Amino acid sequence: MSKASDEEILARCLEQKAVLVTLDADFHAILAVSGASGPSVIRIRRQGLNARAVVAIVDNVLADFEFDTARGLLVTVKMNKTTCHKLPIGGCE
């Protein structure tokens, strides 16, 4: 999928019920503006992490938000804070 568009990547994740892990802010923006209800996206905003650290972050996020990732979340992981917004943004719950 290295040459796929952001929209194609999101569609594939939605099809496969996968959570997208990225450093790219575009996925959050696309989902927020489109009113989509999924897929869930974990955006990591920390620099210089090795693979083991990324896996630990993803494991922690999935453990903390286990049930909600199936419903559609935008998660942002920063150095000292993790934020989470349910999809669709601005939708009724």
How would you describe what is shown here?
This protein is an alpha/beta fold. It has one domain (6-86). It contains three helices and four strands. A four-stranded mixed β-sheet has the order 1-2-3-4, with helices on both faces. Strand 1, helix 2 and strand 2 form a beta-alpha-beta unit. 22% of the residues are buried.
Features of this protein?
93 residues, alpha/beta, 4-stranded mixed beta sheet, 4 strands, globular
| Total count of domains | 1
Number of helices: 3
Largest sheet: 4 strands, mixed
Alpha carbon gap, first and last residue? 33 Å
Quaternary structure classification: single chain
Q: Strands across the major sheet, in which order?
A: 1-2-3-4
The share of residues in helices is 25-40%
What are the segments in which pLDDT stays under 50 over at least 5 consecutive residues? Answer: none
Would you report the number of β strands?
4
Alpha carbon gyration radius: 13 Å
Kindly state the mean pLDDT as a whole number?
93
Name the structural class. alpha/beta
H/E element string? HEHEHEE
Strand content: 15-25%
Q: Rough shape?
A: globular
